[in-house]
Structures are given as structure tokens and as C-alpha cells.
Specification:
The chain is built from twelve helices and nine strands. The protein is of the alpha/beta class.
């Protein structure tokens, strides 16, 4: 029997997230919850929630010292054991009821496929944000749009293992880095239908911890570095033309520079602007660099 493992870890909204897992029309074999040293009361809330469940799904709560989201995801992945498919569901996102049924069917039908993603809707927004272009050139799509699709993606677990899991040495962007590598190993499927709902940014209204992607302006530097190093190592496999590569690097570093400048991090902002203004020189300087640490 196919099994799935889901990881989640913060705040009061996590109960809505967990409910969406156990309301699936195709229930997962496992639900692995990793509490990465939370201080917002979520651990107590989750334990109370677990006591009221009668689902056939195996539910495991693993509490660890705070080591970051990548370590939490890797912990959940290891605890899941030898699974065929895995999805990493953030604690402020909610699945539509048929998410696993649709994505599992899509992956099962194509042996060469390594991932299946549905569309996403940000809470408070109107129409869902489509990710249909993923099926055309997934690497290109990820480089341009980022990787904020983890909660709406079912992955072939073997691809996660082959690509080294999540990089625990970086605070944010490890999903971006991992998904880029996975995209080179097989096809990526887009499944139509209801989107995953992302409640990002709403958790603070209830006193929960802020979403990590919104908390640190320096994260934009990490994401720009990941994109730049990837295209420097894989220019012909990026899905980008020779003319598009420097434009991508300029765009990523310009956003990083603006974020740093707004936060008053002047020196770092100036360096980021330098990379944005001379993308080819920057790519040449890092072409032989080790992956981001």
C-alpha cells in the first residue's frame, strides 16, 4: 500500500492544517508532525487534538529542539520510513479534500514523474494562482517563480533521497534548492482542481509565530544565491536561454538588494546591487563555487 508522510510545525493554525489531512478522500498511511521547539502552545494543542482522533492514519508527534524548518522536514522524512510518496505540509496551509487522491493518481500513472503539484490560493486573495506551466519546463518555472509550492506538492520519495533531502545549513530557501535539483531528475505534473489554501501571514493575528519567509530580509540573499549558483552549474539545463540567465540573476539580486536596503542593511544591499548590475561577472566568479553553505 502506498503511504504518505506530512510534516508541520508551528502555531494555532496547525489544527486546521491537520484537519485537512485527515479529511482527505484518500487518507495517508502516516501523518508525521514535527514540533521544532515551538513556544506558541501548539504542542499542547496538537496533543489534545490527537486524543480526539479515531482515524486509521498513523499519527506521530515528534518534538525536537529548535533546529530550523529543514531539520524538521528531514526528521519527519526519516521517521516516515520507506514510503513511496511524501508531501511536506506547512502548518499554515490547508489541503483541499482530494489533494492526495489527485496527486497520487497523477504520479502513479507516469513512472518518470517525480512530483505533482496543484494550484495555490493565498487566503484573502481572489482567483487561485495557477502553476500549470510547471508541466512544461519545471526548472525554468521554479527559477522564475520560486518554490512556494511545497504544501501543494506530492513528491516521489526516492527523488527526495537521491537529491540529498533539505539542506539544514541554510535557514530559508532549502525547499527552493531541493526542488530545483528534483526538477532535473524527472517530469513534474500539474494537477487541475481545487488549490491548496495558504494562510501565510495570518498566523500572527492569533498570536502565533510569523511565517519564516516573511521574517528575515536576508532570506532574499539566500534565494538569489541559490538561483545564481544553480544556473552557473546548470546553464543548459535551466530551461532559460542565454539571454534570460543574466536577466534572472539581475532580477533576483535586485529584489534582495531592495529588501536589505529597506531593512537598513546598507553594506549588504550595496553588494547585492553590484551582483544585480553585473550578473555575468558574478556568475563567472561563482561558476566553480561550492553549493551554498
Amino acid at each position: 500500500m502506498s503511504r504518505w508522510s506530512c510534516q508541520s510545525s508551528t502555531g494555532g493554525l496547525v489544527l486546521k492544517t491537520l484537519d485537512s489531512v485527515l479529511m482527505q478522500t484518500c487518507l495517508p498511511g502516516q501523518l508525521i508532525i514535527v514540533d521544532d521547539g515551538s513556544t506558541d502552545g501548539s504542542g499542547t494543542a496538537i496533543k489534545a487534538w490527537m486524543e480526539g482522533q479515531q482515524s486509521p492514519t498513523r499519527i506521530v508527534l515528534q518534538t525536537t529542539a529548535n533546529r530550523g524548518v529543514s531539520a524538521a522536514r528531514n526528521t519527519g522524512f526519516e521517521l516516515a520510513g520507506h514510503v513511496t510518496y511524501v508531501s511536506f505540509l506547512d502548518s499554515d496551509d490547508v489541503w483541499p479534500a482530494d489533494f492526495l487522491a489527485r496527486t497520487k493518481a497523477a504520479l502513479s500513472a507516469i513512472d518518470s514523474a517525480v512530483a505533482a503539484s496543484c494550484d495555490r490560493r493565498f487566503a484573502g486573495a481572489g482567483r487561485p494562482a495557477e502553476v500549470s506551466e510547471l508541466k512544461e519546463i519545471s526548472t525554468r518555472w521554479l527559477l522564475i517563480n520560486g518554490s512556494g509550492i511545497g504544501s501543494g506538492t506530492l513528491l516521489r520519495a526516492a527523488a527526495v533521497r537521491a537529491c540529498g533531502r533539505y539542506d539544514e545549513s541554510i535557514r530559508s530557501g532549502a525547499d527552493f534548492k531541493l526542488f530545483l535539483e528534483i526538477s532535473l531528475t524527472g517530469s513534474w505534473i500539474h494537477v487541475s482542481g481545487d488549490p491548496v489554501t495558504m494562510l501565510r501571514g495570518q498566523n500572527v493575528h492569533g498570536g502565533d509565530a510569523q511565517n519564516l519567509s516573511l521574517s528575515h530580509p536576508a532570506n532574499w540573499v539566500t534565494w538569489a544565491t541559490i538561483a545564481s549558483q544553480f544556473v552557473a552549474r546548470n546553464p543548459t539545463r535551466s530551461g532559460l536561454s542565454a539571454a534570460e540567465i543574466p536577466k534572472l540573476v539581475t532580477s533576483k539580486w535586485h529584489v534582495a538588494a531592495q529588501s536589505l536596503a529597506t531593512a537598513g542593511m546598507t553594506r549588504a544591499a550595496c553588494e547585492a546591487y553590484e551582483h544585480a548590475l553585473a550578473p555575468l561577472e558574478y556568475l563567472k566568479s561563482i561558476s566553480g563555487a561550492k553549493p551554498i553553505v
